[in-house]
Write a structure and sequence with these properties.
The chain is an alpha/beta fold. The protein is built from 9 helices and 10 strands. It has 2 domains: 135 residues, Nucleotidyltransferase, domain 5, CATH 3.30.420.40; 167 residues, 2-Layer Sandwich (Nucleotidyltransferase, domain 5), CATH 3.30.420. The strands form 2 sheets. A 5-stranded mixed sheet has the order 3-2-1-4-5, sandwiched between helices. Helix 4 runs antiparallel to helix 7.
Length: 339
C-alpha cells in the first residue's frame, strides 16, 4: 500500500491538509482566510482563531478525497516553523492529539525547506520531473528571500538571504502605495502585463555577496510617488500599469542578478524556483528566458504548489519518515526557524 503521510500546514493564514502515498499526492485541501483583506495584512490573533475553526474539517476532507481513513496513516508531518506562533500552535497541537490517539509518529517540518521540496511531489500537475542534486533554489515568498544550495533531501545550505524585507513584502507594500488590495503581489503582476517595464527606474541595492535587500527599493518607490503626486495628484491613476510593470521589473532584476552570481560561483547549472512569489508570471518568464540564454536546467513549480500548502509538508515528511526522523511529544513550534 505504500507509506501514507498526512501533512498539516498552519504557518500563516492558510489551513491546509494533504495526503501523500510515497511521493504520489492523493489530496491537498486549503482553507483561506478572507478576513484579513480589510486590514491590509494578516492579523495574527484572527489567523489563529480561524485555524482552530478550519483544521478539523480540512483534515476530514483531505482524508475523504484521498479515499482513506485516519487509521491508514503511517505518520503526520506538521509545520513547526517559521511562521506566526499562534497559527503554528494550532497545527502542532492538533498533530499531537491526532498522533497520540492513533499511536503513530509525528514529523516536524521546516516550512522553508518544504517550499523547496515541492519539486519532488508526483501529481497530475507535476512538470518535467524532479531536479538532480545538487541544485540551486531561489526561494521567494512574502516573508523570506533566499538563495539555497540543495545537496540532498535533508542538506540545504543558504548562500544568501534578505537582510531586511523580502521580495514578497516589497510587492505587497508598494502595491498598497498604489491603492491595490491585499495581497498586492498578484494585482501588481496583472497590472504589469499591461504596462511599460522600462518607463520608470528605482533604486537597487549594492550589496556584496549573495544577500538581498528590498527596503531601499520600497523607500525609493515611496519618495518617487510622493514627488510625482505633488506635481500631479492623478499621477498614480494615470500611470498605474507602468508603475506596476517598472516595480516588478526592478524586483525581478534584483533577484536574477544574485542568482546569476550564485550560479557562476557554484558552477551548478540546475536551478529551481519556489515560494509564493514563484507564482509571479513576470518572474517565471524571466527565469525561462535566462535558462534558455545560459543553458540552465530550470524547474518551476505548478501554480498550486507556490502558495502555502500541506502537500509540501507531506512530501518533506515522507523523506524524514524514510530516515526515521520523528519528533518527540514535548516539541513546541518556533516562530523563527532556520535550516
Amino acid at each position: 500500500m505504500g507509506t501514507l503521510i498526512l501533512g498539516i500546514e498552519s504557518s500563516c493564514d492558510d489551513t491546509s491538509a494533504a495526503v501523500i502515498r510515497d511521493r504520489q499526492l492523493l489530496s491537498n485541501v486549503i482553507a483561506g482566510q478572507d478576513v484579513h483583506e480589510k486590514y491590509g495584512g494578516v492579523v495574527p490573533e484572527l489567523a489563529s482563531r480561524a485555524h482552530q475553526q478550519n483544521i478539523v474539517p480540512v483534515v476530514d476532507r483531505a482524508l475523504k478525497e484521498a479515499g482513506i481513513s485516519s487509521r491508514d496513516i503511517d505518520a503526520v508531518a506538521f509545520t513547526r516553523g517559521p511562521g506566526l506562533l499562534g497559527s503554528l500552535l494550532v497545527g502542532t497541537s492538533f498533530t499531537k492529539g491526532f498522533t497520540a490517539a492513533l499511536g503513530i509518529p509525528m514529523i516536524e517540518v521546516n516550512h522553508l525547506q518544504a517550499h523547496i521540496m515541492v519539486h519532488f511531489i508526483q501529481s497530475s500537475e507535476s512538470g518535467a520531473g524532479s531536479p538532480r542534486f545538487p541544485f540551486l533554489c531561489l526561494l521567494v515568498s512574502g516573508g523570506h528571500t533566499q538563495l539555497v544550495v540543495v545537496r540532498d533531501y535533508h542538506t540545504m545550505e543558504i548562500l544568501g538571504r534578505t537582510i531586511d524585507d523580502a521580495a514578497g513584502e516589497a510587492f505587497d507594500k508598494c502595491a498598497k502605495l498604489l491603492g491595490l488590495p491585499y495581497p498586492g503581489g498578484p494585482h501588481v503582476d496583472r497590472l504589469a502585463q499591461q504596462g511599460d517595464a522600462l518607463r520608470f527606474t528605482f533604486n537597487k541595492p549594492r550589496l556584496a555577496g549573495f544577500d538581498y535587500s528590498f527596503s531601499g527599493l520600497k523607500t525609493s518607490f515611496l519618495y518617487f510617488l510622493r514627488d510625482q503626486l505633488k506635481l500631479d495628484p492623478e499621477f498614480i491613476e494615470k500611470n498605474k500599469a507602468d508603475l506596476a510593470a517598472s516595480l516588478q521589473h526592478t524586483i525581478i532584476d534584483i533577484l536574477l542578478n544574485k542568482l546569476r552570481m550564485a550560479m557562476e560561483h557554484t558552477g551548478i547549472d540546475r536551478v529551481a524556483l519556489a515560494g509564493g512569489v514563484s507564482a509571479n508570471t513576470g518572474l517565471r518568464s524571466a527565469m525561462e528566458r535566462e535558462a534558455e540564454k545560459r543553458d540552465w536546467e530550470l524547474f518551476i513549480p505548478p501554480f498550486s504548489f507556490t502558495t502555502d500548502n500541506a502537500a509540501m509538508i507531506a512530501i518533506t515528511g515522507y523523506y524524514h519518515f524514510l530516515e526515521g526522523h520523528f519528533a518527540s511529544d514535548d516539541i513546541t513550534p518556533l516562530a523563527r526557524m532556520y535550516f
